[in-house]
Amino acid sequence: MKNLILTAALLLSLTAEINAQNKTKINISLSGLKDSTEIQLKLPYKNSHHRASEIERGYLINGKVSFDIELEESKVFHIGVRRNYGVIRFMASAGDVVIVSADTKINTDYGDGSVLYSYDNCKVTGADINNDYQNFTNLNLSVWKKYEPLLEVYKDMTKTLYEAEDNDDTKTVKEIKATSRYKEYSELYDKYIEENDMMRSELMDKNMTSWWGPLMALEMYYDLPELDFYNKFPDEIKNTYYGKRMLEFMPVVQTGKPIPSFCMLDTDKKEKEIYSFLKDKKCVIVDFWASWCGPCKKEIPNLKRIYENYAEKGLEIISISIDRRESDWEKALVSEKLTWPNFLDYEQKISDQFKVRAVPEIYILDENGNLLAKNLRGEELEEAVKKQLNK
To answer: pTM to 2 decimals?
Structure first.
């Protein structure tokens, strides 16, 4: 009996020691915010949608708040003011005692009760893994930092171009695109994209046998590569935390394969099935968007032009809004004057099914519902439509 008690006590002691080793303490100090400001600690990539998931929240007292969490693997965290925008990103490992400090100020007030915060003079200490994470972050941004000042020279032209596109001013758009200056800008931007893609490809090649590989893919790619790319990781990497997260985010629809069937309620509250729109059509664009999404609105004039030119030749467009308020969606339909079928996915069941990470997300389908291409914009989108219709 005595031996049993000793064994039980030893097991409890070992369990407590293991738990203590897995405990990570995060001490946060933020100036510029009022006491009782609610702070969130989040994990990005925790669910199948693009939103970060809250794991802890607390209130600032004298500008400070602390969190105690258990970690088995190193993870990326986001810290920010609840129900507002702007976060501090850092990485921590099991057993770390992390100190995060920053000077907080309002960058943008959106006028709806939410603001974008910036965190100046940010310092993170006590987490060695964070040094590696910040090095990766700097490398990921290195090509953009190289080209940003070069592209800034064309800012006046691109601003005028975007405004013209937003206002359906095709005359101004054509005039700008016919200039030698626009050609210089396009060539420079294409060079940036090419160099950035090369840098990312080299980073991935160097980290295919490490859990850094799937984390880098999640951090770098708006569109994750398809399943063939994921399958290049060894099984032990697929079974890590970020290996599993990456699998959750992998595209459901593969190029050349049919999209899954789903049903939606239209503006008249009638249920429609996606494949019913393929009847007598040679090409269908499925556009996930939202009324609050600037890039979505920027693409709408292009969609309108494509629809006007090709609807009678076998094209259909289906827009699926992820707005959470029906009134916002209905208001946007009126202001944007969208004439093709429109649907509201306010519970985001369809966008979650498709693992939509950000909007706009555009799918181009053939007459059988097979995916031809994804997330093309502007002239590339029109060329893909023309190619399919001309088959």
So the answer is: 0.78
Phi-psi region of 36 (alpha: psi -120 to 50; beta: other; left: phi over 0): left
CA distance 270 to 286: 18
**pLDDT, tens only, 71-127:** 999 999 999 999 898 999 999 999 999 999 999 999 988 777 889 999 999 999 999
356 near 49, Cβ under 8 Å?
yes
Return the domain boundaries, the chain: 2-126, 138-249, 263-389
| Residue 271, pLDDT score | 84
CA nearest neighbour of 103 among 195, 13, 29: 29
In a 3-state reduction of DSSP, which class is residue 287? strand
Task: Please tell me the predicted confidence (pLDDT) of residue 157.
Answer: 95
Structure tokens at 88: 């501090």
* 359 vs 361: CA distance, rounded Å: 5
Q: How far apart are CA 101 and CA 103, in angstroms?
A: 7
Which residue, among 59, 105, 114, has the nearest Cα to 84 in the 3D structure? 114
In 211-261 the beta strands, taken as DSSP E runs, fall at: none
Letter for the amino acid at 15? T
State the CATH class of domain 263-389.
alpha beta
Residue 111 CB partners (closer than 8 Å, separation 6+): none
Extract the tokens encoding 204.
Answer: 């991935």
How far apart are alpha carbons 211 and 236 in whole angstroms?
Answer: 9
Pairing relationship of beta strands 115-125 and 75-81 according to DSSP bridges: unpaired
- How many other CB atoms are found less than 10 A from the CB of residue 190? 10
In this structure, which topology does domain 2-126 adopt according to CATH? Answer: Immunoglobulin-like (2.60.40)
Chain segment 120-157, per-residue pLDDT in tens: 999 999 999 999 999 999 999 999 999 999 999 999 99
